[in-house]
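Q: Structure for this?
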Amino acid sequence: MLTLENLNVFYGAIHALHDVSLTVNVGEVVTLIGANGAGKSTTLRAITGLLTPRSGRIVFEGQDIAGLPAHTLVARGISMAPEGRGIFANLTVVENLEMGAYLVKDYAQVKRDMERGFTLFPRLEERMKQRAGTLSGGEQQMLAIARALMSHPKLLLLDEPSLGLAPLVCHTIFTTIDEIKAAGTTVLLVEQNANAALKHSDRGYVLETGEVSFQGTAAAIAGDPRVREAYLGE
Amino acid sequence: METFLQQLINGFSLGAIYALIALGYTMVYGVLRLINFAHGDVYMLGAFAGYFIANALELDANPSIFGTIVVTIGSMGICACIGVLIERFAYRPVRSHSRLTSLITAIGVSLLLEYGGQVVFGATPRFFPQMIRSRTYAFGGVQITNQSLLIIIVAVVVMFGLEFVVHRTKIGKAMRATSFNLSVAKLMGINTDFVIAFTFALGSALAAAGGVMVALAIPRIDPLMGLMTGLKAFVAAVLGGIGSIPGAMVGGVLIGLMETWLGATAYSTYRDAVAFSVLILILLFRPAGIMGTATTEKV
Ligand SMILES: Nc1ncnc2c1ncn2[C@@H]1O[C@H](COP(=O)(O)OP(=O)(O)O)[C@@H](O)[C@H]1O
Ligand SMILES: [Mg+2]
């Protein structure tokens, strides 16, 4: 479904991604792990079109999408809950979800999708009319995920969805990822919480200072002694 | 009491104009964090566009409310296009550069319109045709001209319209989303370039309405008329809290009221200084303005 081929991304003179290549197959949950500053968010930003790679290809469903404007990629089926959640604090919960459905023309459809979001996260329904800025961190993350699902993505990108959340809320987020996968959406997940992420993934990649240093099935990564030492806190 | 009421009315109709222009500053700042210094000159162009339409319709000979509305809407349409062109050709090319670059560009556009206006329209003031026959209504000791009344009505209608657009329509919600976080707005599939262009169109149309309304009350128009009024409207936007739409409305009305009050005292020669004293005071004591929140500011 998605293949990155030798992707190089720069911030001015800073070379943030070095020849990154990875693949996400239809129906998989793939995790990208790595230390702070390894380039995980940069990878996702390049996929969503927020950054233009200097070189390399981003092939999504057979077409090179590298450098296409970000807003055109939503229609192709890519959606992201960005790092730091990126909710619109000045808009209500419902308005945030409407923004997620910006390209959906049929408002009845939008309503149905909202209901689906509320089934996934009942807490959001209770806070429908509230400004999103007044939600707790966990609720904001739920909103960010529900909003990203409003466009019916084929590929969902999640950037550190469990960051800063209480263990119970993390658990909710990870079980939701299972449900999203079960509903047929492919997921590329970025996590610092590598233990939990790998439990809910099929495969994974380890990024180290902008380069892929290790890849394999979730079990292989979780079992690798070097990875265990560096990322799994052992 | 009557003098007080009289000044309240005068202050309101002056303030309504400032508010109309302040809205454009605040909306553009909201989406781009850019002070569009050329905005006051778009207001001037609005007055000139209205002048040419009114003359073409020969409203001087047969004044009418209907004609006035046609002139206002026509001028709003023309300025909306001008606003879009300014954004497209002056601001968009420098958008990824530093904010200082945009600011200098804005000053450049402003000077271009002012002195370009002098070349095209001539530096001598022109007189806006009387589109409606002046009439004065008296309520007790308070007088209001039909022009002031029209200014207030138009301003109120336009502001309710704007509130509706910004809060109830899809493009309005997209404007608020873009204003809060431009890159996340893109992730929603929102064409933020279009939203920005739309914001310029809307702000410029409001300034044009302000230009035509002013010309109803003070028919002398010239290419530099946007300079002082634009600056005062900018102060109104800062006073209300730059980026805040209700703030711009409140700020505009307050500046109008203060100016009218001072104008009626022995210090009337300091009228124009009001806005700038206010600016200094806000910047010293409450930079976020009345309705602004310092925390919404992002770099
Ligand atoms: N906007 C930016 N400007 C300059 N450098 C950046 C920017 N964003 C990230 N970087 C740098 O790029 C590298 C990768 O960052 P990022 O992708 O955010 O890491 P991660 O998400 O893995 O923590 C880091 O060295 C970071 O300092
Ligand atoms: Mg990151």
